[in-house]
Fold these 2 entries.
Entry 1:
Amino acid sequence: MSPFEEFDGQTPTWCPGCGNWAIGAVVKRALANLRLSPSSVFVSFGIGCSGNMNDFLNAYAVHALHGRAIPVAIGFKLANHKMPVVAIVGDGDCYGEGGNHFLHALRGNHDITVIVHDNSVYGLTTGQSAPTSPKGFRSKSTPDGLIETPLNPLALAISQGGTFVSQAYASRVPQITELIQKAITHKGFSLVNVLQPCVTFNRTNTYDYYDSKVYDLPSSYIPHDQVSALKHAMNMTIKEEFPLGIVYESKRPAFHECLPQLGKQTLLERGQFEGIHEILEHFI
Ligand code: SF4
């Protein structure tokens, strides 16, 4: 597939070979496969290279401030809970700057899909270590090697109440497409952590590295047991092996379903936002 076909002839400012190309194209394809037109989905973008997709995706969209893509997504969901809501973020934005929001969105089981371009580095700011950078990672911000151990997004999401926790790899396009579609149709908080090589600023987590470190969950694996799911998640920390697929899935009411006042109508349908257009126009 040519990325230029997928992006309608426009050219995102991503480096040649970056995993963002595949993820960007897949997001568009997944939305089209789900027959979600631009006016029937809301997307909240975080900062960083992944956020540049905001300019190339035709949908109700907001390019949020640092770490704030998730609360923007939650706010939109509570205003119009009948519309699918997606947050597209990087690992630095989601697990670092917005880590607090990530934790509490998991606890609340807010019905949003979070797609993380996990490249283990701050790419747009030219290569500083990020929450998922490996221990010892040498970067502009850690020239003598990173002291901290990497954050484990899957273990965090499973232990804090996420009800759909999955991982994909940027070079496996069909699998990312399938996982994103399943995540969007899941009722509750869904995470698709996409391992995404940054070919310019991360010389550790390369395509060769991931090719030798990822593994598919066996077809017999049933993702409903939290302990088994945590074992696979912890393989990333203990063995440096990365499971691909749905690692954990469960059912419990989403946050908005626990609010009786949202039972029949959305806030939008109830006219709670009358006059909002005039207010917004004031800022444009
Ligand atoms: Fe991709 Fe890294 Fe280039 Fe950003 S800096 S576009 S993450 S390769």
Note: The mean pLDDT is 93.
Entry 2:
Amino acid sequence: MEIIIAKNQEEVSKIAASQIIKEINKKKCFVLGLATGDTPLDTYKELIKAYKNGKVDFKDVKTFNLDEYLNIGKNDVNSYNYYMHHNLFDHINIKSENIHLLSSDSKDFRNTAIKYDKLINENNGIDLQILGIGINGHIGFNEPDNKLLLDTHITDLAQKTLEQNSKFFPDIYKMPKQAITMGLGTIMRAKKILLLVTGERKAPVIAKCLRNNEINTDIPASTLLLHNNLTILLDEEAASIYLKEKKMKENENFNKKYPNYKREFNTA
Ligand code: F6R
């Protein structure tokens, strides 16, 4: 696992975009897993800029999105289908047949889910999966629970997720309460994972996720710690609690090892 701490959201987006471009340029038919939400918005802007400057070509890139709300029209401004077209696909040369979005209005979601995983497998899996993290530790819409599902599935959104995402809807009662999401097996089979974490509000959850070096189904993102090619890209605000705790641990370890040299690390 690699942890990169960048100055701010802008730097995170620049680093993320350059890593994505580097990976795309390495391989002819590239499969990119995409997330929505606030966090990757500037990364998508950087990708569009790079495309316009001839630094990356999406002609042979295939995409699979992580999730979608249930029963939301695909042209609804809050659908992830709309988000992806508006914030990325409409501005790059990706072929429409290479875009894979989970259907928000299917009559048979179970079948949709099975077909989605099958299609990802037929494309030899995801080469690079971009992820954000919810304030409750969810990835995709894999919500904290006593068990986590591996395959693409329908899920009830957690109360914290409803609160986190209701800002996009007229009010919390008008937002979908369910979603369809890639499961953790599908996500974990990606060859490389890039988790983007920005802003102060994500500091508690990422610190919790990295605190004890353990997997906890209450923090679905902790599953990622098992991945052998995981990069966590944080800005300083998101990293603040994690860094403070890390310094305190180093301090404790130092004082245990050298009891005669009491040393205080600056944890400010
Ligand atoms: C979105 C997704 C979610 C978000 C997470 C963070 O496709 O799968 O897991 O990544 O809720 O959202 P933001 O970036 O809005 O804080």
Note: The pocket of fructose -6-phosphate is lined by residues 35-39, 66-67, 132-134, 138-140 (CB under 6 Å).
